[in-house]
Amino acid sequence: MKCKLEIGFLLFLISCQATLKDSLKPPAQCDTWKIENLAYASQKASEDSMNEPIPQKKMEYAKKGILWANRCIHSFPDSAACYYYRAVNTGLYYKVKGLGYQGGLKEIIADCEKSVSLDPRFEAGGAYRVLGNIYLKVPSFALSKNSIVKDSERAKHYARAALDVDSFDLENRLLWAQVLLEEGKYEEAKTYFKSLQEDYAKIVNLTSHQKENSEQIQEGLKRSEKRS
Questions:
Q1: Neighbour tally for 26: CB within 10 Å
Q2: Which pTM value belongs to this model?
Q3: With contact defined as beta carbons under 8 Å apart, do 206 and 200 qualify?
Q4: Residue 141 belongs to some domain of the structure
Q5: How many domains does the chain fold into?
Q6: pLDDT (tens digit, 9 = 90+) per residue, 26-35?
Q7: Sequence-ordered list of residues with C-beta below 8 angstroms from that of 170, at least 6 positions apart, any chain
Q8: Do 104 and 94 contact (CB within 8 A), yes or no?
Q9: CA end-to-end distance (rounded Å), the chain
Q10: Do the domain assignments include residue 226?
């Protein structure tokens, strides 16, 4: 959801965020916000977290994003956006925190599955993409039998679903390239990585998140060229 902030909304956002640091939920005056405002606030927090270099601040932005998403879900329980951005912010939070990440993964999966049930096409199949990344990149072993572990077949299923929603989306293509690499389909993976490399080269002033993706592309291209 790519909403533009108007001046009035910006001022309202600032007034509401001022109390978030010491609160478990957004203040009462935010209850009257429309879904677009609440979802945007959560989305904006996730983008700030992705592009923030300082770990503690990354966590703070992600936590704010979770709070906005909670309010969004409370007010609009049938919105795919609310669940999707809570999942994204939860992932960003535990990416830094680490401790207790298994609980975080279960929350993310539940939110993504709910988002998919409401609107599988939201954010270019974003919930499918998040699920695919989890099952592709989480460790393949865990101490608890109920833990979320790597599952290549599930990763492929969700990566394919995301690509079916939007085959032009850069992150969908990156995930699919990584799935192909994991399967040992090096020539196919190389084709995707090369195409992605060309597309990222066209982007002016990459964000921190885009730089991370670009690094993954370079690494994937190296591995696929070495094996092909």
A1: 22
A2: 0.84
A3: yes
A4: no
A5: 1
A6: 444 455 578 8
A7: 196, 199, 200, 213
A8: yes
A9: 39
A10: no
